[in-house]
Write a structure and sequence with these properties.
about 200 residues, alpha+beta, Aminopeptidase, seven-stranded mixed β-sheet, globular
Length: about 200
């Protein structure tokens, strides 16, 4: 049974102590050290993909780690427990974080998830599912009909996870460098949709 649905499953997952929304222009800015910690956690998820001797990889890693920059454009959620950051995710409700592989504007009915990452010690504990379920809840409450995401062709672990929680494959995308990206979508429409909600709620 998919973890995402008309009644999101994140509220029933007990392994994460809190979900925190950072948004600098709403008075909920993450402290600089927490931005750095969450950025390093996120970038580490891409670590096996590149080499420290490759300047283009280092530039991409810096882009992935730039939580503070994304927090000014999209919504960044972090899962914490006892003051430790266990995972983070970025949710684009309207504006798009700069992306060379997909520069087209976001469709009005679409929310998009990016940069999901969970620290290795907290994997297989429901942290990623809770973050994703929260994104689905926020997107649905803000009038979006679908939640989309992309992942690399070789990241079969992520593909299995997204499919297990109910995402369906879309046609593949081709990145600027010629690489293949797997595209996914989760439908958010349900017979009764809650009213519009503040994304940080």
């Amino acid at each position: 049974m998919p973890l995402l649905g008309p009644v999101p499953g994140f509220a029933t997952l007990p392994t994460v102590g809190a979900l925190v929304a950072w948004r600098r222009d709403r008075g909920a800015t993450g402290p600089p050290d927490e931005y750095a910690d969450a950025g390093e956690l996120t970038a580490s998820a891409w670590h096996p993909m590149g080499s420290p001797d490759d300047p283009s990889w280092l530039a991409f890693r810096a882009y992935v780690a730039d939580i503070a920059g994304r927090d000014a454009i999209a919504w960044v959620y972090v899962a914490t427990e006892d003051g430790r950051i266990l995972g983070s995710v970025t949710l684009e409700l309207n504006d798009r974080v700069a992306d060379e592989d997909n520069p087209t504007p976001r469709a009005p009915d679409e929310a998009h998830v990016r940069f999901l990452a969970v620290t290795p010690a907290a994997r297989r504990l429901g942290v990623g599912a809770r973050l994703m379920s929260h994104c689905a809840l926020v997107a649905r409450q803000n009038g979006k009909a679908r939640l989309t995401l992309n992942t690399s062709e070789g990241n079969t672990t992520a593909q299995r996870f997204y499919e297990a929680i109910g995402f369906a494959r879309l046609p593949d995308m081709i990145g600027q460098d010629g690489s293949t990206l797997r595209a996914y979508e989760f439908g958010l429409l349900s017979p009764s949709r809650p009213g519009r909600s503040h994304p940080g709620s």
